[in-house]
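Anyone able to model this chain together with manganese (II) ion?
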Amino acid sequence: MAFELPKLAYAYDALEPHIDARTMEIHHSKHHQGYTNNLNNAIAGTDLEGKSIEDVLASLDMSNGAVRNNGGGFYNHRLFWEVMSPNGGGEPTGELAAAIKDAFGSFDAFKDAFSKAAATQFGSGWAWLCVEKGGKVSVCSTPNQDNPLMAGVDCDGQPVLGLDVWEHAYYLNYQNRRPDYINAFFNVINWTKVSEYYASNK
Ligand code: MN
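re: yes, here you go
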């Protein structure tokens, strides 16, 4: 069973004005489709075929550039679409809110740490909120399509929130203003979904 481009739970224009429809359409139908197709080509006929994407990434040979880049791209974008919603924004509640307060002191301090990780990732990459077994959360960033599931990546735990800071994610609307895009992302974060990921990975 080949990997398939996941359908979005909302329309391409649903995240406007924070993320514009044209960017969403190109990002999903071209970029994510490209990673999906290239991943399928890279694993066809190998012993990776038929594995879950999580298993593919957890057991990845990091010298396998095709699977590293396209498997990462497939997984990262799937998570990215899910942690956004037209009804998003605000702050988490419950045990995730408590874990963020434990780790950072306040939601605002978490927002600063996550935004800094996203803003200072040089070139293309991602910012992450991760959870370790036991419930501790932390922020990190990775270059290119690397992610916290991959061996040797300097992030602890499972990703529960990811932000794409490749220029293709924001350049049409924000040009070089990555900080404005990062700030806008906070208006569409689907904290309900992030909390579900937190609960199932803590
Ligand atoms: Mn992207």
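The CA atoms of residues 99 and 136 lie 6 Å apart.
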